[in-house]
Amino acid sequence: MSRIEDLLQRMTLAEKAGQMTQVTLDTISYGKPYKVKNPLRLSPQKLKKVIEKKLVGSVLNVGTHAHTPARWRELIDEIQAAAARTRLGIPVLYGLDTIHGANYVMGSTLFPQQLGLAATGNTELVEQVFSLAARDTLRAGVPWLFAPVADLGRDPRWPRLWEAFGEDVQITKDMTVAATKGIEKVEGAASCLKHFLGYGYPQSGMDRTPAWIPERQLREYYLPPFVSGLAAGSPSVMVNSGEINGEPVHASKFLLTDLLRGELGFDGVVVTDWEDVIYLHTRHRVADSYRSAVKISIEAGIDMSMTAMDTDFADHIVDLVESGELPEARIDESVRRILRMKEKLGLFEIPNPGHDFPAAKPKKDLALATKAAEQSIVLLKNKRGALPLKKQQRILVVGPTANSKRSLHGGWTYTWQGEKTDELDPSEHPTFLAAFRSEYGKKNVRYVQGCNHQDELKMKKLKDKLKWADRVILCLGESSYTEFFGSLDDLYLSPGQEELSVQVAKAKKPTTLLLLQGRPRCISRLKGKYDSILTAFYPGHGGATALSGVLTGRVNPSGRLPLTYPRSPNSLIPYDHKSTENQELQGAKSAFDPEFEFGYGLSYTDFSYRKLKLKKDVVGQNDKLKVSVKVKNTGRRSGGHVVQLYTRTHFAAITPSVRRLRAFQRIELQAGEERTVTFSIDVADLAYIGLDQQPRLEDGKYSLMIGDLEKDFMIAG
Ligand code: GLC
User: Fold this and answer.
1) pTM above the 0.90 mark?
2) Tell me, what CATH number does 655's domain have?
3) Based on the domain organization, do 272 and 303 belong to the same domain?
4) What band does 645 get if pLDDT is binned at 50, 70 and 90?
5) Which of 216, 487, 559, 630 could form a disulfide with 611 if both were Cys (CB 3.0 to 4.6 A apart)?
6) Mutate which of 163, 193, 238 to test ligand 1's pocket (most atoms within 8 Å of Cβ)?
């Protein structure tokens, strides 16, 4: 008999219920939940109560803020020592939000947030980033990473857009696979795909508000990244806190059991999101008590509840089983999955993987973070070669994101909301202003904040400095936030930033607009003509020097928008829209009217395409589409370039998208170099989901587009 089966047989119901319970670090620390004493210290009394008496099997989060690796190892040792004092000594499984590097481990290198990583088009790099993040997390003694986010970010208003890989299925699939593989290849680390399913499309655009997503759309757009992430070996899934079509996902037997387990065959651990079982009672109101919420969620298919604050969840399980309302066999299913995960992570042998862990290589790690940041920057406009900047001009840097580390990192940075980043981030990491001053030369760079993120205007000396300047770099965008704290009532930039743009425009100086943001804030109301515009989506520790490098020309930008950049809050339609969303009706406004299109991004060099070839222009439904194209760097400097392959379905029973991205590859070309890029696409991947919820691929005419080239092909039989 296996160790797990033997253990299971020996476990009491209370021990099993404890394994299904996950609490936050606050509950075993001095102080009160959300108000833990700083510096954080574990309370022996609380440890005894929660771990030894209530037998809780999993802990998450940071309590106060990120801890050093050494402090983490001490904390994990204390917690595992308490677990070892229980009858069976089952080790605790510790989980942390490792979102853009080991952001809760002090001293770790922080990378661009997922939206920025998506802009790189570089899956190899993304895999390296998440492997490094896994190592930094393990060095702290923590094996379980609550990453990657596999949600599609299709609503630019959504406050967690920057945590996702953008609006496109293919990019999200490929990047989710890269991130998952990156984590899973690190022995002792486990990824967690989140948030299953359809979390990123709340109807209001505000976090955790109801979503209405027809099953057909769920299957065609939102499900594939999870299917790919599971195929890449992720052992756990975290559930979407929201509701879809009136059903809270934590109560959905269809989604959590029939679809995830039945259809996808997943037999790993399903963990709830924060307090989401009791929220079935207190928020969603589908359960008239916490106890019935426990029953509903376990019947739906959860294995572990991130109760976060309470251990009553475990008591309710015992009560429900003893009263015959829940079969113990169902509890055994969940406990088996949890114990298997702990065994696979080696926790029974080494409860704290942080000891004797190889040291970090900060210089090498920062080099990777800088490479990722450089490739994540998207150059959106560059009229008359305004960039790179000419040498020795007088430059005035203005705006709230210029000297803000919160704007370089976003949320999940040392704390949940990232509000302490400027205080906690090691001083060796510069803000954009500091990096630019250091590179361009202090004497020619002056600064005015202009306004802060609370929209308080800070325009003292702005007029004088504008007079002095030859050029302005206007740094706008967002500070840090996540989840419901980032919900917006207007996607335009804030009034203070718009007012600042008015004051800067009055000086009529050449101006570069630099946007540091987590989502594409609408800029169409800004006053001022910007001869150059660039954006980065929380580019991380390498971001400041990368942005400076793009402005001075040391770095050639190559990022491509992983989203459609809206012109106004009323037009939030993604690139893979339907033809009826993309046409002028007798000169009336087209619904699809972006500021910048999905996949757009400029370079300081030029690339041309020629000789687009299909091996066969008539293919069967089970064939591969073999494609080649020649790409040339026709400019005078080397550059990275993301080659994107789209297809169009000319006619289908379900209205076809005007185009869908099917593959992408990043290449680096020297000036004048030409390379043949090849793709092999499964024809079956062009299927859509029919009204019968099944994949459907129709014979007929299709087109394939790369750059400005297009080729028709037929699918026949
Ligand atoms: C949060 C987030 C989730 C995170 C979890 C633990 O509410 O929704 O992404 O992993 O709680 O911090």
Assistant:
1) yes
2) 2.60.40.10
3) yes
4) very high
5) 630
6) 238
